[in-house]
Design brief:
Blueprint: H1 2-21, H2 27-36, H3 38-41, H4 53-62, H5 64-70, H6 73-78, H7 81-90, E1 100-101, E2 104-105
Antiparallel strand pairs: 1-2
Domain Bifunctional inhibitor/plant lipid transfer protein/seed storage helical: 12-101
Signal peptide: 1-23
Protein name: Protease inhibitor/seed storage/lipid transfer protein family protein
């Protein structure tokens, strides 16, 4: 079982390094995340208490900025954006309140105004 996970991990790293060398946008790796964390972000599936280790590994490797770049209306139709925000936070890569992920506004930015 572990070998398979490690293999997936290698594939993700290979995908990433190849896309970064060519300076491409991160479409493929962002989609990889959506495939890797389906139960944590799907609208229909029951949400697990916390994202899987694999899911968080993808979040860390790919980065939420990239994942949010990939999300379009079609993806927003099938995933729960609030769940995605929760996954990011649970995996230690919380999205900034008031920032956008796809066309979704991450809640919490309007509560406190920072001066300066």
């Amino acid at each position: 079982m572990k070998e398979q996970i490690f293999y997936q991990f290698l594939v993700v790293i290979m995908l990433l390094s190849s896309s970064q060398i060519q300076g491409e946008r991160c479409d493929d790796s962002g989609i990889e995340f959506l495939r890797g964390c389906p139960d944590s972000i799907d609208k229909e599936l029951p949400t697990p208490p916390r994202p899987s280790q694999d899911c968080c590994t993808l979040v860390r490797i790919i980065g939420m900025k990239c994942i949010c770049e990939v999300i379009n209306k079609r993806i927003e139709a099938v995933i729960d954006m609030q769940k995605l925000v929760n996954v990011a936070a649970a995996c230690g890569s919380p999205l900034a309140p008031g920032s956008h992920c796809g066309s979704y506004l991450v809640p919490g930015g309007m509560v406190r105004h920072h001066h300066g």
